[in-house]
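ok so heres the complex, two chains, lmk if somethin looks off
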Amino acid sequence: MRRRSRLPLGGGLSLKVEQGGTLALHGADLAATLDGEPLLPGRAFTVTTGQVIKFERPVTGLRAYLAFAGGLDVAPVLGSVACVVRDGLGGLDGEGRALASGDELRAARNELSLRKLPQAALDWQTGLSPADQETAIILPLVVGAQIAEFSGDSLYRAFNSDWAVDGRADRMGVRLTGPRLERDGAGMVSEGIPLGAVQVPADGQPIVLLNDRQTIGGYPRIGALTPLACAQLGQCVPGTRVRLAAVTPGQARRDYLRALKAWQV
Amino acid sequence: MAGAGIQTSDVPHLRLETVGMDTLIVRLFDSIEESNMGWVLAADSALRQVFGAALIDLVPSYTTLLLHYDVTMLEESEARARVSQALENLSPDNGQQGQLHEVPVWYDDSVGPELVPIATRLGISVEALIERHCAHDYCVFALGFAPGYAFMGVLEDALTTPRLKTPRQKVAAGSVGIADRQTAIYPSRSPGGWNILGRTPLTLFGRNAAGEPSSLFMPGDRVRFVSVSREEFLRQGGDVTPLEERS
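and the predicted structre for the whole thing:
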C-alpha cells in the first residue's frame, strides 16, 4: 500500500499555515475558504505562512480530501497513516489518536509539478448529491452471499423501495432504513466480509459495511455494493434516499476501470 | 466448482461464490470442525502462491476463505480459473499445525463473573470447570472482531454455553470467555457478550520485533490454557481490577 497523502475532512476544521506550500482539495464541497475566499474542490492551490483554511459545513457531499504534496510526514503503520481510533492504529502518533486542536501536520516534501485534472474528474463532484429531494441515488450492488435465503417479498422490496441513509453511519458501516427484510435460514458460520457488503441483522434493516469494517462476521448478506457505490454512499448525508440496483461483476468492473481512467492525467 | 480438485470425503462441498465486484468466497465446509483447519491453511498458502501480486487480501475463517483480487489485473473468469488451479490436488496441511501457545489464566470470580454460574449449572465444582477448560488444546480458527481476537475451539459439548442475553459494555483486556462451542480472549477492552471465566496477563496484540502491530495468535495455531494463582498473574503483569459489570 502506498503512503496516504490525503486527509479526510469533516465540517468545522480550521488549519493555520505555519509554512507555505502546495495543497490540493477534492471530494465534497464543505464550503472551504482560504482567508475567507472560497476554495473550489478539484484544484491545487498554494498557501503562504499565516493563511487560514476553514471548512464550514457540507454543501455537496460529506467528506472532502486535502492532499499534501509528497504526502504527510508520518510513520506509516501496517502500510498506511490512516487513523483507526477504535483499534488504536495509525494517525499522527501511530496509536490511533484522532486529530485534535494544536496538532501539526507536516508535508513530507514540497516540490511538484502541477497538472490539471481532466474534466471527467471534475464532473465527479456534481454526481454527489441527488438532483432533487424526490430522486433516489442509485447504488449498484453485486448480488450474492446468502441472498437465496431471503424471502421473495423481501428481495422485491430490497430492490424496488427507496432506502433512507440513517444517522448511525461512520467509516465502519452505514445503516439503511426502510422495509423489513426477512430471511428464512439457520444461523451461519462467520466468514470474511467484502467491502460494501450489505448485511441484514435480525431487525431486517441493512447495514452497508465500509472501509473500517470488521474482517469476519456472521450476519447474512444480500450482496456487496460496488466500490464506486461505496464512495457515493460515503458522501450521503443522513436522510438521503438511495435505491439498490443489481449489477453483474463484469459490468461493475467496466464502470470501475472507466472511472479510474477518468482520473488519470 | 467443477474441475477443482478436492476429492476426499473430508471435503464434500467445495464451492466458489461471487460476493462482490472483486471478491470471491471459497467455501470448503458447512460446519465448524477442527479437521477443517488443515484444508483451510493449505488453501490459504496455495491461493497466495497462485495469485501473487494480483492478491489484495485473503481472509480465512472456519469454513471459508474470502479472496479479494486486483480487478485492474484480473477479470472474474481469470480469478476463478486461478482458484481452480490453486485448489487442484490440494491436500490438507496437517503436519504443520502452527505454534502452540501456553496461556496463563487467573480463573477467579472477580475477573470471571460467569465462572460460578456455569459451574453451578453443570453441577460441578469451580475447580472441575477450570480443569476441563484447561484439559484441551484449542485450535485458532480465525482472527476477527478486533485486532488479535482469536476464535478458538472446539469446547467439549458439556461446556456449550449461549452468549449473554445482554452484552457487557466493557470487557477488560485479557478476559477469557466462552460462547457456544468456542473460547476466546479479548485483546483490548471492548464491548462483548461472551461468558467470562478469568483473565490472562498476556498481550495479544502488540508490536512485533519489527515494530509493526501484530497478533500473537494466527489461524492454525494451538492454545493451551494454564491455571495460575493471583500472585503469578500479578507477577506476569496482570491487572486484577474486577469486571465492573456482571451479567
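quick notes: Residues 184 and 229 of chain A are 28 Å apart (CA to CA). thats all i got rn
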